[in-house]
Amino acid sequence: MSSNGYRISFRVSWVDTDAAQVVHFSNYSRFFERVEEEFYRHLGFSVTDHKYKEVWFPRVEAFCRYEKPARFNDLLEVELTIEELKEKSVKYGFKIYHKDLAALLATGYVVIVAADKQTGKPTQIPMEIVERLKPFCK
Amino acid sequence: MSSNGYRISFRVSWVDTDAAQVVHFSNYSRFFERVEEEFYRHLGFSVTDHKYKEVWFPRVEAFCRYEKPARFNDLLEVELTIEELKEKSVKYGFKIYHKDLAALLATGYVVIVAADKQTGKPTQIPMEIVERLKPFCK
Amino acid sequence: MSSNGYRISFRVSWVDTDAAQVVHFSNYSRFFERVEEEFYRHLGFSVTDHKYKEVWFPRVEAFCRYEKPARFNDLLEVELTIEELKEKSVKYGFKIYHKDLAALLATGYVVIVAADKQTGKPTQIPMEIVERLKPFCK
Amino acid sequence: MSSNGYRISFRVSWVDTDAAQVVHFSNYSRFFERVEEEFYRHLGFSVTDHKYKEVWFPRVEAFCRYEKPARFNDLLEVELTIEELKEKSVKYGFKIYHKDLAALLATGYVVIVAADKQTGKPTQIPMEIVERLKPFCK
What number is the ipTM of this complex? Predict the structure, then answer.
């Protein structure tokens, strides 16, 4: 795993699975979001903090490549890395591992923009957030 | 089926299932809500209409009894009935049928209150909505 | 909180919320299931263990009473208690608290039966599971 | 819209939304899958038909580009096209439109392989399925 990623671990819940007895493909996006949320908590802020109330952070792209299925109760490790930090957007990379097997299950990325809540137009990522993200840039 | 219910039909999606190859129990609440949404469309309004902007309709109780499992691709018929219409709340009853087998899969209910968006306190259901609901009361 | 419950804590994810900016009511069932899964891990078994391969544990009833809404990032504490342990079924009670406010957000229960995978008929809960559950009975 | 796509329409449900009052990004994958399921029904088969019992169809890639948000009650039209049909895989393209505004909300694709259920290895897509898909190829 890369040296400057942020990682969390959790187990696959029953509700995450589908009738093929594997995790439903749409849930990988939710796992990506879960590590992103924990990453912000780790950095000490939330996108819903009052001071960011004029900005929101919609996703503009999401991609996932599924290598191997995950099953109920599997212990997953999800790693977030910052692939690209621009003035108005950030691209996070994700890797999902089966922790006990040390196997890569999926890779993906999500591109997020900062947008003005009134106009919907892209705007600068608040500097305080940029400063907290920088140490994680490659 | 009861004479004054409102019914919709739809098929079980793959994402609704879990590793037991049946519909995950939490999705029945979502099916209840789906028929409720279609019911309001059928009655010609939406709870998000501008004129109701000072009210919201949180659920205060939900119950489901699971009789038989539903599986991928099953054609379901979901029936909504009004069990009780009070000044500030409404109790909907639900029945889910496997349409081809004419089998009852689940029954349940949901109690919804009208609440003032500012105070959070229960308030009167808007009269226009009450008038539209009345013909469906038992 | 009751003395012999089992508790876990987690934060509300963005995906758990809906356009009313509160947790969607169907997700409380998922929170109930999450603490149930962790409870079994705590007790050292999984319902999917090979030795239980002839049994499954469908839910036959689920109920939730919603007291106060939960919001994004809220730290929740979910408590599971055993309300009733019978030969072929178990009834779990659940309480969801807002941990920082020490406020009760929801209460509910789920009734689960042990069923023979071949016949679908109710069967005895495996004795090893019963033994592990007993210390948590009221 | 392209001439040889397959289209379905449905409204955004409350449960599809999140606290930003738009459809949660992970639900677009679910919308893609919903039109895929309806497409197969339209073609007269299901991937779970008994004759395909030795094959399953895992997703190996999924991508979505989000152009504009979708909101509760919006009438969506989702179009599926076959971007590439190979011996062992198929790539579906998707476009999601806001029907009343005739606005493009999202584009994406999903790559699916046929896999042997025993070995997990890629295998030929059953010829009957290939024959039904061909008329939709560009």
Answer: 0.95
